[in-house]
Amino acid sequence: MEDQKIIGIDLGGTSIKFAILNQEGEIQQRWSQETNILDEGSHIIPDIIESINHHLDIYDMKPTQFSGIGMGSPGSVDRENGTVIGAFNLNWKQLVYPKRDIEAGTHIPFYIDNDANVAALGERWKGAGDNQPDVTFVTLGTGIGGGIIANDRLLHGVSGSAGEIGHVTVDPKGYLCTCGKHGCLETVASATGVVRVARDMAEEYAGTAKLKELLDAGEEISSKIVFDLAKEGDPLATAVVDRVSYYLGFALANIGNTLNPSFIVVGGGVSAAGEFLLDKVRVAFAQNTFPNVRENTKIRLATLGNEAGVIGAASLVLENNKD
Amino acid sequence: MEDQKIIGIDLGGTSIKFAILNQEGEIQQRWSQETNILDEGSHIIPDIIESINHHLDIYDMKPTQFSGIGMGSPGSVDRENGTVIGAFNLNWKQLVYPKRDIEAGTHIPFYIDNDANVAALGERWKGAGDNQPDVTFVTLGTGIGGGIIANDRLLHGVSGSAGEIGHVTVDPKGYLCTCGKHGCLETVASATGVVRVARDMAEEYAGTAKLKELLDAGEEISSKIVFDLAKEGDPLATAVVDRVSYYLGFALANIGNTLNPSFIVVGGGVSAAGEFLLDKVRVAFAQNTFPNVRENTKIRLATLGNEAGVIGAASLVLENNKD
């Protein structure tokens, strides 16, 4: 039915965000609760079921008024079976069954995908992606995640690793990544990567720079501090941001050469550095893209912030109804 | 109708190949003719129309017995409008109208895409792609072309450049490419690229090697000669093939990290070097891929040879009937 609503859930290690949306992706109700990761995360799914049923009571709504529930989850997601394994920030080490349990507990069809894919769908639908058929999303956080929409559909690949943009190799002789290989984009352009590059460049830096002073004094630095100092003109911080931007622009250029999306949308904590970061990224992007791609694929900042998760989760329901 | 036939056309600079196929992609008739590129290629489309109508007469078939004609073409193809521009090996410098003219001349619906995309569809459907939903194809010829099928659909991107694998940057400080940027895969791993790498490495090579002798004697060398000498153990030729394979493996690894296809199918003249080449490519691919991709995305040789074009062109008809 056209006026059916959708529930979007953004499941994270600290909070679970919920929203009720209409078919146009407009949020009509929203709420959230803390994530209880005690007892191997065994309270999480019952909490979600209770929260949904409780809020349907409050709003005097019935399960039949919903076309589905969509959820973005950390960990390794099996979309067909609706299971998750290895979501360590939820304490979900063993296989859990969100689809089976939430459908039984709410009587609403349930769809699930990983959080980066879901955020990609959200930004594409209602954010910087302008609802175009070809949009790539990259999120620069503690790690780097990604999601690719092509021909209006999310890509998963043969074993669910499509969009692993954080593990694109940008420097084959570079830092060892947690994934076991060297020189992944994540090792240099995630929040932790930026700090790693800063520490390494500081060691070899001979001049005077505030960033070097902070590091030499043993201060905790963050990627935000590095970007803030670069914006103030600190020479070492500028060199760090230039190097990080180069790697990011190189990786996004080859994604552009391969996929030629309308937009490559950049989100996540590191993207708070804004156009200051993107302007530098665009230089390396232009150097490394085929002319038609350089002219037609645009790099943009994400616009939805925290809401990308619930909106994208809701669009997962529409995505699955296309099948 | 299920028993309708399809006509596949592979339009090239020296010959035009035709085939009549059934809906399962089995070739039932085939013929070809020389490409007449005189008079700015103005004879090509009339020749195609005449050839089709002539062969339908011979086989006593009517236009209504065909669900469509598919054609792969060089140049820049506008799929929606069915036009081509800048196909220099056909002398088509100006805009030509294959769809308009061939539909008017044969009364059969006509679909067109560029030759690399069409070959990708062919290899995916009846060749090394095992008809999987996610298959990437790369063709190593005079240049390097590519085509990407994801979620069962060919990718084009916002401006038709999806799959420009030849212009993935593998060495930002590398050779200048015809496209205007530096270090494109095509500059080192196409047939001409292999020879370029050989000439450059020979200049710096101090030892004794047959390949160096040939080059020093001013002999014409080809990529085939380089691979043949490497297979015989020639040290310089081996070093050249190792470098070429490294770049190819690096580029395919990042395509794997981005798309996680079932297969990356390698075709074109240079792929005649066979498993000798692919085994080396797989080393660099393994070094630069995320573990899940390394385990699940396989590199394979193309199997259809010259027939990929007509088979893929035919599948273009099926592809378009999905819309």
TrEMBL record, chains A, B:
Coiled-coil zones: none
Any GO molecular function: ATP binding
Keyword Kinase set for record: yes
Key words, A-Z: ATP-binding, Kinase, Nucleotide-binding, Transferase
InterPro entries per the UniProt record, alphabetical: ATPase_NBD, ROK, ROK_cs, ROK_glcA
GO cellular component: cytoplasm
EC number: 2.7.1.2
Pfam families, per database record: ROK (PF00480)
UniProt GO BP: glycolytic process
Entry keyword annotation includes Hydrolase: no
Top-level taxon: Bacteria
Enzyme class: transferase
Family, per entry: Belongs to the ROK (NagC/XylR) family.
Protein name stated in the entry: Glucokinase
Organism encoding this protein: Lapidilactobacillus concavus DSM 17758
